[in-house]
Specification:
By secondary structure, this protein is of the alpha+beta class. It has a single domain, classed as 2,3-Dihydroxybiphenyl 1,2-Dioxygenase, domain 1, CATH 3.10.180.10. It has three helices and ten strands. β3 and β4 form a beta hairpin. InterPro entries: Glyas_Bleomycin-R_OHBP_Dase, Glyas_Fos-R_dOase_dom, VOC_core. This is VOC family protein. It comes from Paraburkholderia denitrificans.
Length: about 150
Protein backbone atom coordinates (compact mmCIF):
# COMPACT_ATOMS: atom_id res chain seq x y z
CA UNK A 1 0.00 0.00 0.00
CA UNK A 2 1.46 3.39 -0.93
CA UNK A 3 1.70 6.23 1.58
CA UNK A 4 -0.88 8.23 -0.38
CA UNK A 5 -3.31 5.30 -0.22
CA UNK A 6 -2.72 4.72 3.48
CA UNK A 7 -3.47 8.31 4.46
CA UNK A 8 -6.68 8.30 2.41
CA UNK A 9 -8.03 4.83 3.23
CA UNK A 10 -6.87 3.83 6.71
CA UNK A 11 -7.75 5.64 9.89
CA UNK A 12 -4.66 7.08 11.53
CA UNK A 13 -3.54 5.35 14.70
CA UNK A 14 -2.28 7.38 17.66
CA UNK A 15 1.49 7.41 17.95
CA UNK A 16 3.47 7.26 21.19
CA UNK A 17 6.48 9.52 21.63
CA UNK A 18 8.65 9.67 24.74
CA UNK A 19 11.10 12.57 24.98
CA UNK A 20 13.40 14.15 27.59
CA UNK A 21 12.64 17.30 29.58
CA UNK A 22 14.58 19.29 32.14
CA UNK A 23 11.52 19.96 34.33
CA UNK A 24 8.11 18.30 34.59
CA UNK A 25 6.72 21.56 35.97
CA UNK A 26 7.84 23.43 32.85
CA UNK A 27 6.55 20.63 30.61
CA UNK A 28 3.14 20.75 32.31
CA UNK A 29 2.93 24.53 31.91
CA UNK A 30 3.91 24.39 28.24
CA UNK A 31 2.15 21.27 26.93
CA UNK A 32 -0.81 21.41 29.30
CA UNK A 33 -1.14 25.18 29.64
CA UNK A 34 0.01 26.84 26.42
CA UNK A 35 -0.74 24.01 23.97
CA UNK A 36 -3.85 22.82 25.85
CA UNK A 37 -2.91 19.13 25.97
CA UNK A 38 -4.81 17.19 28.64
CA UNK A 39 -2.63 15.44 31.18
CA UNK A 40 -2.90 11.68 31.63
CA UNK A 41 -0.97 9.41 33.96
CA UNK A 42 2.19 10.59 35.68
CA UNK A 43 4.89 9.75 38.19
CA UNK A 44 7.65 11.82 39.78
CA UNK A 45 9.76 11.09 36.66
CA UNK A 46 7.32 11.34 33.73
CA UNK A 47 3.96 12.72 32.62
CA UNK A 48 1.64 11.71 29.74
CA UNK A 49 -0.11 14.28 27.56
CA UNK A 50 -2.90 13.92 25.01
CA UNK A 51 -1.01 15.60 22.16
CA UNK A 52 -3.73 16.13 19.55
CA UNK A 53 -4.90 12.54 20.03
CA UNK A 54 -1.41 11.07 20.38
CA UNK A 55 0.39 9.91 23.52
CA UNK A 56 3.29 12.20 24.34
CA UNK A 57 5.37 11.27 27.40
CA UNK A 58 7.73 13.81 28.95
CA UNK A 59 10.49 11.98 30.85
CA UNK A 60 12.67 13.84 33.33
CA UNK A 61 16.17 13.53 31.79
CA UNK A 62 17.82 16.98 31.85
CA UNK A 63 21.09 15.82 30.29
CA UNK A 64 19.26 14.58 27.16
CA UNK A 65 16.86 17.48 26.53
CA UNK A 66 17.26 20.12 23.85
CA UNK A 67 18.18 20.23 20.20
CA UNK A 68 21.75 20.39 18.98
CA UNK A 69 21.94 20.13 15.18
CA UNK A 70 20.25 21.79 12.22
CA UNK A 71 19.88 21.05 8.51
CA UNK A 72 19.16 23.58 5.77
CA UNK A 73 15.58 23.33 4.45
CA UNK A 74 14.16 25.93 2.07
CA UNK A 75 16.56 28.60 3.33
CA UNK A 76 16.13 27.94 7.06
CA UNK A 77 18.13 26.06 9.68
CA UNK A 78 15.69 23.36 10.77
CA UNK A 79 16.36 21.56 14.06
CA UNK A 80 17.18 17.95 13.17
CA UNK A 81 15.45 16.49 16.22
CA UNK A 82 11.91 17.81 16.37
CA UNK A 83 8.31 16.65 16.48
CA UNK A 84 4.88 18.14 16.02
CA UNK A 85 1.51 17.75 14.35
CA UNK A 86 -0.01 18.48 10.96
CA UNK A 87 -3.03 20.67 11.68
CA UNK A 88 -5.82 22.03 9.52
CA UNK A 89 -4.91 25.41 8.05
CA UNK A 90 -7.44 27.18 10.32
CA UNK A 91 -6.09 25.45 13.44
CA UNK A 92 -2.51 26.23 12.37
CA UNK A 93 -3.31 29.95 12.04
CA UNK A 94 -5.10 29.94 15.41
CA UNK A 95 -2.12 28.24 17.11
CA UNK A 96 0.35 30.65 15.47
CA UNK A 97 -1.68 33.59 16.78
CA UNK A 98 -1.91 32.07 20.30
CA UNK A 99 1.85 31.45 20.38
CA UNK A 100 2.60 35.00 19.17
CA UNK A 101 0.22 36.45 21.77
CA UNK A 102 2.04 34.42 24.45
CA UNK A 103 5.38 35.92 23.39
CA UNK A 104 6.80 32.68 21.99
CA UNK A 105 10.30 33.01 20.55
CA UNK A 106 10.20 31.19 17.22
CA UNK A 107 13.18 29.27 15.86
CA UNK A 108 11.50 29.70 12.46
CA UNK A 109 8.63 32.18 12.30
CA UNK A 110 5.25 31.01 10.95
CA UNK A 111 5.41 31.12 7.15
CA UNK A 112 4.66 29.22 3.94
CA UNK A 113 7.47 26.86 2.92
CA UNK A 114 8.07 25.48 -0.60
CA UNK A 115 5.75 28.13 -2.08
CA UNK A 116 4.35 27.09 -5.44
CA UNK A 117 5.81 23.58 -5.17
CA UNK A 118 4.16 20.21 -4.60
CA UNK A 119 5.08 20.24 -0.90
CA UNK A 120 3.82 23.77 -0.16
CA UNK A 121 2.97 23.99 3.53
CA UNK A 122 2.51 26.38 6.40
CA UNK A 123 5.14 25.75 9.07
CA UNK A 124 6.57 27.14 12.28
CA UNK A 125 9.27 25.96 14.69
CA UNK A 126 9.69 26.84 18.34
CA UNK A 127 11.25 25.35 21.45
CA UNK A 128 9.53 24.09 24.56
CA UNK A 129 10.97 25.45 27.85
CA UNK A 130 13.28 22.41 28.03
CA UNK A 131 14.86 23.17 24.64
CA UNK A 132 13.02 20.53 22.58
CA UNK A 133 12.13 21.68 19.07
CA UNK A 134 8.55 21.43 17.79
CA UNK A 135 7.21 21.95 14.29
CA UNK A 136 3.56 22.51 13.52
CA UNK A 137 2.52 22.50 9.90
CA UNK A 138 -0.56 22.58 7.69
CA UNK A 139 -1.35 21.92 4.05
CA UNK A 140 -4.03 23.65 2.00
CA UNK A 141 -4.57 20.15 0.52
CA UNK A 142 -3.81 17.37 3.02
CA UNK A 143 -3.61 14.98 0.07
CA UNK A 144 -0.22 16.61 -0.65
CA UNK A 145 1.26 15.47 2.67
CA UNK A 146 3.36 12.75 0.99
CA UNK A 147 3.34 14.12 -2.57
CA UNK A 148 6.61 14.12 -4.48
Amino acid sequence: MSQATSINQRPLQPFHLAFPVTSLEHARAFYGGLLGCAEGRSSPEWVDFDFFGHQLVAHLAPEEAGHRNVNAVDGHDVPVRHFGVVLSMDDWHALAARLKDAGTQFVIEPHIRFKGQVGEQATMFFLDPCGNALEFKAFADIGRLFAR
